[in-house]
Write a structure and sequence with these properties.
Layout: H1 2-27, E1 51-52, E2 58-59, E3 64-65, E4 69-79, E5 84-85, E6 93-97, H2 103-113, H3 121-132, H4 142-151, H5 154-160, H6 175-189, H7 195-202, E7 203-204, E8 221-222, E9 228-235, E10 238-245, E11 262-263, E12 268-272, E13 280-285, E14 293-294
Parallel strand pairs: 1-4, 2-14, 5-7
Antiparallel strand pairs: 3-11, 4-10, 4-13, 6-12, 8-9, 9-10, 12-13
Helix pairs in contact: 2-3, 3-4, 6-7
Amino acid sequence: MITSLLKNFSIVLLFGACVSSSHSSKQEIPGKATDNVDLIQPVLDSNNSPQSLMDLPQTQYGGFVLKPGFYETEFKTYCLQPGTPDPRQGDAYLQEPITGYRKDILESVLLNSRSKQDIDQRNIQLLLWSVVSGSDFNSLSYAVQSDATKLLTPKQIYELKGGIVGTIKSVSYSAGIMNANKGMQELFSKGINSYETFEKLAVNKEQANIIKKGIKYDQWYKQNENYYVRYFPVSYKKVRIQVYVPDSLLDSDGKSNGEYVVFDPTGLQAVPAFTNAQRLGIGAPVIQIIREIIQVNKHPIPPKKLPQKKNPKEYV
């Protein structure tokens, strides 16, 4: 009897240990975007060469209508957290929605940048730095202010000019990030025009610190629609995104549960999985080629339409 009880007790302990291990492995990776992480990684043949996402059809919003296969494309990215290290080779990244201070304005800039490929990436970055640091919009150069009107609505411009009171102090930041934000405000207020001066303050060139262990840099992240995504930052200015779509995901009509499966990273942010490196806002693809447009009924974050200019007094 005693032997039997000990045997059963050991089985219970073993089962409990397995459950605990399963839960802890999911908690290894921080952030909302990891809720659906599949630790059983897709197996790709070493000879598989990724196709370009740009070869796929796109929706009227600019998302990619997925088909089975292995894909890759580079996207422009933007520093959203001044004062943190530049990402380096081997840093693991994953995607999350934009959060925090003036996130709706950040989303609008990133989403609308897709259709404004003529705007200098540096001007978009300067605009984003001014937004996240809480700097005075009126201190921006004429060129950046002009480009801002192409990316934001009059109401949003009015808010950035101080028409709607908002405070960055309500956001919890580390001392380094707060110092960088204050430094940004000072540079803008002094009318500094050198992009390199802002970059030196915003992008820390020191090696990022590892704050989580046990996470692979090439970890695939399973999405709600059962395809996989992973991110490889080149620098704070560019990220290489890979997408894997299993053969069994779509039916003969190229749909899943009657809907097209659409991948659209623009307007999201890529965040470090185990270091304190930059948070990157994702903009337009580096190379813009439109093959085919497919009309879809649903889209998670449609681009903000820019209405005709109105009198700012209407927003008081």
